[in-house]
Amino acid sequence: xxxxxxxxxxxxxxxxxxxxxxxxxxxxxxxxxxxxxxxxxxxxxxxxxxxxxxxxxxxxxxxxxxxxxxxxxxxxxxxxxxxxxxxxxxxxxxxxxxxxxxxxxxxxxxxxxxxxxxxxxxxxxxxxxxxxxxxxxxxxxxxxxxxxxxxxxxxxxxxxxxxxxxxxxxxxxxxxxxxxxxxxxxxxxxxxxxxxxxxxxxxxxxxxxxxxxxxxxxxxxxxxxxxxxxxxxxxxxxxxxxxxxxxxxxxxxxxxxxx
Length: 259
Prior knowledge:
It contains 10 helices and no strands. The chain is mostly helical and 259 residues long. α3 packs parallel to α6, α3 packs across α8 and α8 packs antiparallel against α10. The longest helix is centred in the last third of the chain and has 39 residues. The chain is globular.
């Protein structure tokens, strides 16, 4: 019984998402049938294009290129932003000094950062990934700074009494308290990064979902644009449901209390 209830609990979010997406697809199909237009293709036409792009291999090639950039930019942004955020949250003087910097970078448009990166460093992969990471780092800094400010000093005192090493302090004292903030920064980071990656690819890359969307924009092929968009959104949804949420539940299992 316990295993069955656990399986049901795991499947419920997936089934809910599937039902929600099915309803959206039906609504889309009805609207496309009521107002037929090349600029508003129905789900059937988009599905045909999606299958054709998958069959010739283009879909998986460009999806792979984009996912690689998303992963690289995500890792850079989370590592750099978390370190800076915790340092600023732990040192008030440094926080006061660098607070205007954080506000400045938070308000620089993503497009400006991308264009400057391409001008300064060239149309290469490092510039593309760096531009995406720079756009996300300030958001991570702000979130993790709040997490560092909320740290309970009594836990640090306990660690000192029991003579925890640096690794044990990080594992048993620091990370459990910062986990909600890491989860928030991570989830918002994925959502923001993949959108910026598409702009980066549109402006200066010769592959990826963003490049394909720009190509089909020039050809006024809305069905292909929607096919690539939905394929990538589907991949990100799978990552959210089967990677991000399970990891988050595992990391916060210590906070749950038996009924």
